[in-house]
Amino acid sequence: MASFHVIPDQELLIRLQKGDHAAFTKLYNKYWENLLSIAWNHTKDKCTAEDIVHEVFMALLREKNNFDILSVGAFLATKIKFAVFKHYRKQQRRERLAKTNLTFEKVSLDEEKLDALFLKEYIDGIIETLPEKCKMTFKYSRYAGLKNNEIAAKLSISEKGVEANLTRALKIIKHHLETSGLALILSAELLKRYNL
């Protein structure tokens, strides 16, 4: 009886970067169903969801050497959410072209709100992967608006520890934004709003 050998994702990524299409197939088979579910939950349309999943896997294959991937599942889920976001933006642009009575200011405001909503959802996803104290420090600072000394008291760490955790969280978030290309897409003003 042959033993079933599970190949770790990191090894599959290395093989994929060397051009091993079997590694790509294994990653696809492992993640496609979960990714389809995420895309469908956002779009409620099977064909659109399938197109988005296909697009994300093709991007992984095309740009396999351009990504610094720590977790394949988290990376692909984030790419799905970004692809859904792009789909909605494209759909909204089509709708706006059909409606001539919208003012430029209204269109700009709607796009900015959509950007802000997506950025918050994207950053929330990154934050959930941070080490616990780092995650709590960021949430207390950016979402609860607490000062460093208040955060230090809540987490029983020094103010320098708070600063170190904030610096680490911001560095990780910025890295994700840069490697995903979002730092180029989202406006500097919007990033500033989140103190990034």
Describe the structure.
With 196 residues, the protein is mostly helical. It has 2 domains: 8-101, RNA polymerase sigma factor, region 2, helix turn helix motif (Rna Polymerase Sigma Factor, Chain: A); 103-196, Arc Repressor Mutant, subunit A. 78% of the residues lie in helices and 0% in strands. The protein contains 10 helices and no strands. It has helices at residues 9-17, 21-43, 46-62, 72-98, 104-127, 132-143, 148-155, 159-180, 182-185, 188-193. Helix 2 runs antiparallel to helix 3, helix 3 packs across helix 4 (72-98) and helix 7 (148-155) packs across helix 8 (159-180). The longest helix is centred in the middle third of the chain and has 27 residues, at 72-98. Mean pLDDT is 78; it is low at 100-109.
